[in-house]
Amino acid sequence: MPESDEQLMLAYAGGNAAAFEALYSRHKGPLFRFVLRSVKGRGEAEELYQDIWMRVVEAAGRYAPQAKFTTWLYTIAHHRLVDHWRAKGLAMVSLDDEETTAPEPEAPPSAEPHRIVEAQQTAGRLAAALAALPLAQREAFLLHYEADLTAAQIAAATGTNAEAAKSRLRYAINKLREAVDDD
Amino acid sequence: MTDHDDKLHRAYRGLGNEEPPASLDAAILARARERVVPRRRPSWMVPVSIAAVLVLGIGVSLRMQLEQPGIETSVPAPAAVPERPAPPAPAAPATTAPAASEVARDSSAPVAAPELKRVPQKKVDAPRQKERFDEARPQSNVAPAQAPLEAARSREEKPASADAVSAPHPKAQTTISVAVEPPPAAASPPAPAAAPAAAAPSLRLAPQTMQAPARAKREAEADTAPGARDLRKSLVTPEADPVRELERIAQLRAEGRHAEADRALEEFRRQRPDYRIPEAVWERVKPR
Questions:
Q1: Measuring CA to CA, which residue among A129, A125, A140, A120 is closest to residue A95?
Q2: B14 vs A123: CB contact, 8 Å cut-off?
Q3: Closest chain B residue to A107 measured between Cα atoms?
Q4: How many Å lie between the alpha carbon of A162 and the closest alpha carbon of chain B?
Q5: Spatial distance between the Cα atoms of A159 and A168, rounded to a whole number of angstroms
Q6: Smallest Cα distance from A107 to chain B, Å
Q7: Burial class, B223, CB count within 10 angstroms (exposed 0-12 / middle 13-18 / buried 19+)
Q8: Is the pTM of this model over 0.80?
Q9: Is the ipTM of this complex over 0.85?
Q10: Are B262 and B287 in contact (CB under 8 A)?
């Protein structure tokens, strides 16, 4: 019977290294993509990603399952990103720069060449639109799409209120829809 | 609406499912495993053990410091003297050997030295009076039997120290004078090491007699010794309060000690990953 994230985290805090491995394998993909799409370069993303996990490891002894583990994990990630952005003076979110470093979209599985081209174009537009979003909106969108957090959980993770989180998410989705529908 | 959501969802998934590189996974998992090993022992044990060793060490050294000088002669305690029975001088000869062994057991220093130190302590340390009397009595038994002449000479040679201590009561004088003179066994040729040891107490007695107030002050300071104060301070670290810690980091920044501030900020983040630093404070602590 699979254990919950919270149980695994408590088991790890109690000295069970295997519990951490299980937890890590569950969350590594979404967290990595969240970080990767929040910053400019892959190297930067990897460094931040590792740092976030190290903070999880170091905070394990103080972990108390008061909230969902995912919310706790992305709270740590949010704080790390905020530190990162602050250290960069927030200039890194300049809209002009973002488009050039948007992740290269991968082609969805499709056999037809025109569909491939179309999908690539859509993904490219989406990536550009995502990169162009204001930080808070992009973070809300990624937390919703990657970490599967609700608006309330996004609010908890980012230290804002639920209404603001909902609003950010709505704005982000509307802008991205426009980019995707623009064909 | 749903159609739009599906389209957006599909398009988002089309961006790819990037995963961290395997080397990064391995590094993170290795670090996570490393952290598990020391957790088997409660993390507080090491610092508490160190603190306990320090406290014991400081306590023992302070105790030794307080006891070793051994002479408190500011005011001879007249009330205490009558409690001490007169030394049973005539019954002495048979007790010579036990006296030496008892004194030797009581101290790791050469035999002559502890005898000379301990006798005067009786005068001011009332709670220990009886115990010390037990130690002193055999000494007084030893001396008259073995070297009455040397005892008398010793009194003549050290009037300032011995008389100052023993003046208030004739019985006490007997005890002191007998104890202060070097034991004949130690002073005799087969034990050459005893000679300097026997000379030492008379040198020590006089300054300590005069330093009684200083000694009392030292005892009073024992509780507030720098070591003990530091130890107490370290148990209540300023880092327990995040606001104060941030203030400290801001202070470091203000003083231009950026490297220390960076380290402190990094450590702060590590210890409190959930803590939200207010914007105003962040402006003061952020890396330059």
A1: A129
A2: yes
A3: B14
A4: 17
A5: 13
A6: 6
A7: exposed
A8: no
A9: no
A10: yes
